[in-house]
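Usage example:
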Amino acid sequence: MTGEANGLIHQPLRLKIMAALNGLSPREAIEFTRLKSIVEATDGNLGAHLSTLEQAGYVQIEKDFVGKKPRTRVALTREGRRALVQHVAYLRDILEGVAPTG
Amino acid sequence: MPISTQQAAEALSDIALAQHRASILRGYERGAPHFILWGLIWMVGYSLTDVMPIMAGPGWLVLDVIGITGSFFLGRAAAVNVPIASRNYGRRFAALGITMFAFVSATYFIMKPNSAAQFGAFPALLMAAIYTVVGIWRGVRWAVSGVVLGVCTVAGFALFKEHFMLWMAAAGGGALLLTGIWLRRA
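Running the assembly step on the lines above writes:
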């Protein structure tokens, strides 16, 4: 597979977010608090990067209530999964000397 | 967007680490309710064994059936929206419980423990070893739980033999219960 560079995903925290979400099944979502713990980010930082990824169509954010407690869940979209796969392939291409390096 | 070889290697390493961490935390999340369930079962079972030793056999049989059934439903609930390969979680947890029950029963039949404390200590030591081994691959919290459980069991056997069952209800069951809460908060 020939990779494709993706500047939006390559940002370190966004890359971690996408990688963590990619481990879930296509229909599975993860809670914001759990994701925060995985990527070791602050609420504000994670929220900002999730907004960027949502605007790009890479993640889907659902907000609901469990009883009276608000809950935010995040899932990777099909486009997001495809973009990550292509970016990872691009990174591997660089290591193998197939893609041009900076 | 030019990326150097070193940056590419670092990015791939970050991806692998994030995926590993996500997998470990997902394991904690899925394991937590089972620890809480079995912690409660141990508390009731070991307490019952201390208070009414004559009822220990049938009591543990009933509690094991409750635990295995509970594990089946907890596993099934956790498997909602996970890949097809993981959907039989409920059956796997139930099979795990049945296997443990069969192994402990067979070991008792062959080794023939000669004291109530030996009967009570063996399943706890077995679970302690399993949690420790799981923890070597699947996250340090499992291993800590196994070591604490093992140390509590041996310490109780050596120091509190007269009240070993009560010790196991409090320390063994308590260790499992607290581990469940600890895993859930990871």
